[in-house]
Amino acid sequence: MKSFFYGIEDLFVNVLFAPMDALRFMESWTLSNILNWIFMLIGFVAFVYWMLELKKFNDNGEEDKSISSHSYL
Questions:
Q1: What's the pLDDT band for 3 if we cut at 50, 70, 90?
Q2: What is the secondary structure of the chain as a DSSP string?
Q3: How far is CA 26 from CA 14, 40, 49, 57, 72, in A?
Q4: Per-residue confidence at 73, pLDDT binned at 50, 70, 90?
Q5: Residue 4 to residue 44: CA distance in whole angstroms
Q6: Burial tier of 62 (Cβ tally within 10 Å: 0-12, 13-18, 19+)
Q7: CB 67 within 8 A of CB 73
Q8: What is the number of other CB atoms lying within 10 angstroms of the CB of residue 23?
Q9: Where are the domains of the chain?
Q10: What is the pLDDT of residue 2?
Q11: What is the pLDDT of residues 13-52, one digit of tens each?
C-alpha cells in the first residue's frame, strides 16, 4: 500500500506539476504569472457577462424589487 501512495506522489510531483515548475523558474515576471493572468481574464469576462445579464433582467422589469420579496423578511 505504501508503494501505491508513493506512486501517486510521483505522478503529481514529477508529471502533473512539471509545467508549474517550468513557469516558476522563468526569468520574466509576466510569463511566470501567465496562469494568474488567464484566471483574472476569465473572472473579468464572467463578471461582465453577469452584469449584462442583470441589466437585461432589470430593463425588462422582471426583477422583484419589493421589500418583502422573500417570505422570511
A1: very high
A2: -HHHHHHHHHIIIIIITHHHHHHHT-S-HHHHTHHHHHHHHHHHHHHHHHHHHHHHHHHHT-S---TT-STT-
A3: 18, 20, 33, 46, 54
A4: low
A5: 41
A6: exposed
A7: yes
A8: 14
A9: 1-58
A10: 92
A11: 999 998 888 888 888 888 888 889 999 999 999 999 999 9
